[in-house]
Design goal:
- α2 packs across α5.
- By secondary structure, the chain is mainly alpha-helical.
- The two termini are 21 Å apart.
- The longest helix has 12 residues.
- It has a domain of 53 residues.
- 8% of the residues are buried.
- The protein is globular and about 45 Å long.
- The protein is built from six helices and no strands.
């Protein structure tokens, strides 16, 4: 956030295992009812994220869902800062 406020490019996404699992999970979550319920557990602080990600089949399901998403599915690509600013004007 600080980099964006200063007009600098954001740092590259983290590449550690947890960060990659999180991105995959949250990208798939809106499109699958079981993943959605698991996401609600995380959002509502009922279950820690790493516990949800470690459940049998959760990450396999997330990967399968993401593989089936079309390239233009919501969450697959993000608008640029310039696109967002132009939408506000």
């Amino acid at each position: 956030m600080d980099a964006l406020r200063r007009g600098q490019p954001p740092p590259p996404p983290a590449t550690d295992d947890l960060s990659q699992r999180e991105r995959l999970f949250w990208q798939a979550m809106p499109f699958d009812p079981d993943l959605f319920r698991a996401g609600i557990e995380i959002i509502s602080a009922l279950t820690l994220p790493h516990v949800v990600y470690a459940r049998p089949g959760i990450m396999d399901r997330a990967e399968a869902v993401v593989r089936q998403l079309p390239p233009d599915a919501p969450g697959r690509s993000q608008p640029s800062r310039a696109d967002l600013l132009s939408a506000l004007n």
